[in-house]
C-alpha cells in the first residue's frame, strides 16, 4: 500500500511540474478551462509561497508519542507551542503534549536571537526523520513557522511532515485586511474568527473601520452618545450595536497573540453622519440629522470652523490611542465631498496633529495627498485603473517626499467587489474582480512613480454595505484575501498565476475543514 501511495505521489509531482510550465499569460476567461487540478507536491502547496523551499530526505512521522518541545526560558515560546498544539491536534488526532525539554525528537521550537540571517518575521523549518525544527529570531517568526507546519501536516489524520527545508521571510512589513463594522455591525467573536482565518496565512494587520455614516461602533467615555445613539442601526435599519472598551481590548489582545496589530479607523471629516446625529453641536447649523441607513457616500462633514469639532477629535483619538498598543491610528479622510478643499486641508492638519500628540503614526486614505500629509504619515491607495492621472501623480509625489503607501487598489484588492455578474452580494463601481484579477498584479511595480521601497505593504478591505453575516463575509473574502496575503508575503519571483491557482485549489479542502464558506470561483482548478 505504501509503495502504491509513493508511486502515486511521484506521478502527482510529475503532473504538477508539467502544469507549472503552462504559460501564465493566458487570458482570464481561458485559463479556467485550461488548467485542471494537479495536486502540487507538499512544499509547493504552502500559501503564501515561501521565499525558498528545498524538499528532500526522509520526513518526520507524527505518532501518538510526538511531543512539541519549547525549550526553557521563554513563556512566549511556550504559548506559541501551546497554540500550535491546539491547531495540530484537531487535524492529526494526536495528543501532542507541549514539554519544556529542548533536546530530543518531536517538533522543536527554537528562538535564536543571534540568527542574523533570519529576518524580523522570518523563520526556518527543517523536517527530517528525527524531528521538525522551527527556528526564528522573533516570536512572530516562530508563529509563522508553525503556520507553515500546519500546512505540511495532512488536512486530516496523522501522517508525515515530508522531508525538506523552508527558509522564509516576508516581502512586505504590512500585510493587512480590513473589516468595516460600521455599515453592518459585526461582533468581536465574529471578527476574532476572521482574524484566526487570516493569521494562518501570515496576515499581520487588522484594520477595523469603526465609524461611518451608518454607525459609530466604539464606546467613547467623553462622548457617550456616539455609541449609545450613533451605534444603533446600520445599513437597511438592522439593530446595529457597538463594542465596549473591554470588547475592543479583548480583540486587540487576541490579535496580539496571533501577531496581528490592530489598526483602528475613525473616518473623518466625511463619513460622519452617525457622530453628527449623536451631537447637534458638531453640525455647523447646530441641528442633528437623522440616523442614516442607506448606502450613499460623501454627504456628511464635521463642522471644520467650530472649535468643539477639535475637542471631539482630540477626545476620541486620545481614548482610542489609550486602548491601542499598535503604532497606527487611521483617520480616514476619504470621499469628503461635503467638505470644501481648503476646509479639508485645515481639518486634516489638526487631526494629524492630534494623532502625533498621542505618539501615534497617521494612516489615511490617499486623498490626504491632496492636502498636506504630516511627516511620516502613511497613505492608503484605493484607486483603480481608471483613477485620473492628477490623483495618481499626487500620490506618487507623496511617495517621493518619503511617505509610505499601503496598496488596496479597488479593482484588485477590494473584497466587496463582485467576482462576476452573477455574484449576488457586493458592489461593482470598480468593476468585477475575479480571483485571478485580484492576484495578478505586483505591489512593487503597480503604481507608476512609486518604487517598491515606498510600499509598506498591501491590504484587502471588506466594506460591508451588502455584507451582513459571517457567511456573506466568507463568501466575498475567500478565496481572494489569500491572494492578497501571498502578494504581501512572497517574493516577486514566486508570483505566478498558474502555480498560485494550483496552490490555492489545494487549500479548498483545508478551508472546508475549517468550515470557511469560500466561493468556488470558476477561474480556480478546485479538486
Ligand atoms: C469607497 S474606499 C469607500 C467606502 C465604501 C466603498 C465601497 C473608501 C476609502 N471609501 O466608503 O464603503 O467604496 O466599495
From TrEMBL:
Domain annotation Beta-hexosaminidase bacterial type N-terminal: ranges: 45-168
Protein name: beta-N-acetylhexosaminidase
EC number from the UniProt entry: 3.2.1.52
GO cellular component terms given for this protein: membrane
Example of a GO MF term: beta-N-acetylhexosaminidase activity
Residue span, Glycoside hydrolase family 20 catalytic domain: 172-491
Signal peptide interval: 1-26
Active site (record annotation): 335 (proton donor)
Keywords carried by this UniProt record: Glycosidase, Hydrolase, Signal
Lineage of origin: Bacteria, Bacillati, Actinomycetota, Actinomycetes, Kitasatosporales
Family the entry assigns: Belongs to the glycosyl hydrolase 20 family.
Keyword Nucleotide-binding: no
A Pfam match: Glyco_hydro_20
PANTHER family: BETA-HEXOSAMINIDASE, BETA-N-ACETYLHEXOSAMINIDASE
GO BP field: carbohydrate metabolic process; glycosaminoglycan metabolic process
Enzyme class per UniProt: hydrolase
Catalytic activity, as annotated: Hydrolysis of terminal non-reducing N-acetyl-D-hexosamine residues in N-acetyl-beta-D-hexosaminides
InterPro entries found in the cross-reference section: Beta_hexosaminidase_sua/sub (IPR025705), GH (IPR017853), Glyco_hydro_20_cat (IPR015883), Hex-like_dom2 (IPR029018), HEX_bac_N (IPR015882)
Organism of origin: Streptomyces venezuelae
